């Protein structure tokens, strides 16, 4: 077995207690700093951040808002590319009253979405886990925004439903929105999921009746939008009914090629993509694991037709860049191994003491053949949710990150919560909780609430270890919550030794295969945080809190670097509904305290 270099992976730290501090809190002996925040320069000619003088031109050169995915792609031991996305904007926290017109705010917001590529450098020598931003004057730094041109790939590219007034080809799309989690590919690129894209589309009149069913399944109503149609007519469903079909995809960015056109891969289906993470199967094919983050929606995987070429040549790189354009898309059905039985709270009670069973990956379409009756290949890819509805997959409790563990080859999925479980869908062994306990504030007693409020972590073992296969075994690693709540489950680990955990969202792994879980929307009275949970041996299920973020924020990323020296998280939407300042004490970066500045934080052992 490998001996971890890191202290963060190896242990030796005291868990952070639940708290409502307005700062990033890490264990004793660790240091943390904000590496880059909203408004900081990404491009060399970006103006200094001034919340009273923002423009769309400056926003297009500065670090965007609300990072979720965090990728660190090494250039060498001392430098790396930080690749992060900018999921959405909190206009109520970004703009002082009376300074900007509504349309100015919308234009700046469009440029504050997308992704950033930022060169970073290690501080303090080769064994240090501390990093800072490098000089923005370098060949890599890049902003991708709501108006950057993307190219569609795969079987649905160019389809009539992807064509608009501005793009009769159906292949050239402007921008990416609501990019949530993501993953780094073995061929050196970054994948990012377009998640809640429906919220950007308004209407000036009637909606196109041809798309009533599709719009409804994706929550596209033309109401409750951000008013963007007043600055760009493509966000008006009445005028451009096809524009929303150009969002809801997995996008791929090649950060080492800063002039490359980013792409949207239709072969991976269209839904509220949380993210995508790649596993190379034993036969060399690339397998992408994905979640559709909506209450009662599904988990998916894609298996490429072609094989990964591990050689480091230009030809192999070009070949690998085509892996996500041809293959087969599957959706997951899970069955339990125990008969249906519930307790007085309506929670599923497994006779064998474990929430586990078997599952099937049901094929939806390949790049040439649809397996869904009455739908073409392109229709399955554009209306993936409607296609999946026809083959009876398992309705899950909001699948967020779904990621392979590089050490044990198993797949881990964060199922964040589902207040509608039991109300809309009956419990089953994979979604067992009909009522759970939450706490309105720290120190308050636990109170019972309907539905699954604290979430699960699911572990999947592919049949025969074959990631390309169609059968698997599954088990719930965790039923999250306060360990004092009767419904919680930590794979049998003693509950009096675990940290309370609620609403798992993003997952990551360290060099020895420990699972790291970040949370969003924790309902146990404390701030969101980052947790470590071993998945093997006697420590399996031993959840411990490593870090907490400021009030109002969710913890995103996370990323444990391959050398285990650095723990990265994104602090997303600090102050949302709360008034955080995100005044990180160890930060050497300026903070504008009236305007909490979401950003990316690194933690290392002092
Ligand atoms: Fe953007 Fe599913 O979290
Ligand atoms: Ca069982
Ligand atoms: Ca998420
Ligand atoms: Ca989230």
From TrEMBL:
The keyword Membrane applies. InterPro entries: PhoX, TAT_signal. Keywords: Membrane, Transmembrane, Transmembrane helix. Pfam families: PhoX. It comes from the Bacteria. This is PhoX family phosphatase. It comes from Nocardioides cavernaquae.
